[in-house]
Amino acid sequence: MTMLSVENLTARHGLLEAVRGLSFSIAKGEILALVGANGAGKTTLLRTLAGAHPVHGGSITIAGEDVTRLAAHQRVRRGIALVPEGRKMFAAMTVAENLKLGAMAGRKGDWSVERILDVFPNLRKRIGHKTGHLSGGEQQATAIGRALMSNPDILLLDEVSLGLSPAIVERVYASLDGLMRSGTTILLVEQDLSRAMAVADRVICLLEGRAVLEGRAKELTRDQVTEAYFGLNRKKNERVPA
Predict the structure, then answer these.
(1) What is the pTM of this model?
(2) Sheet arrangement for strand 2-13
(3) Which of 26, 173, 203, 207 is the most buried (most CB within 10 A)?
(4) What's the CATH code of the domain at 76?
(5) Which of 8-12, 188-192, 228-232 has the lowest mean pLDDT?
(6) Number of domains observed in the structure of the chain
């Protein structure tokens, strides 16, 4: 079953096309990693899918329903949740209060505060603390937990490892391991190529808003992805004028 389908999607920042005619789909339970250099359009794509950035052209379908013109809160109710780049915590609110905000979408499901604490046990002792006083890893865990509390069918994770130490990244990904094996459909933006290729079923590499490489993670080499990441494969294929 296709959970998310994107057809000829275009998104702009003024006159700049950040996402250019992009098409792809994600099956139920699949993990798709989006990789690419800064400015490739990854964050704009996730924000557009979540309804936080306007669609200029094309369509977005969730479980067969066209949601292209729906507002962000309406898309949450259709089953899509975004963990934004930089985490975007309500710093004056506690971990518990941030988590409970995620449940306001009113979707039925198995996610609860207690289950979040089982997935991210480091939050248990911090549940009554304001998120502005948490470490980066604890904030990231809270942001993911808040999104899960909406009981999404599709989870959009933007730069999970951004600004975190290697040890904290290991801890966050270890906590996510159970989630990734639970059948949750995940679209993951990750700058760490090794990490992305290790956890994903498929990889799409974006360059200047376009998909320049797509394939099964196990069938792609790091060199192939690196060349696409920096546009080297495109340069190799360009003809040199006689």
Answers:
(1) 0.90
(2) 16-27, 2-13, 57-62, 65-66
(3) 203
(4) 3.40.50.300
(5) 228-232
(6) 1
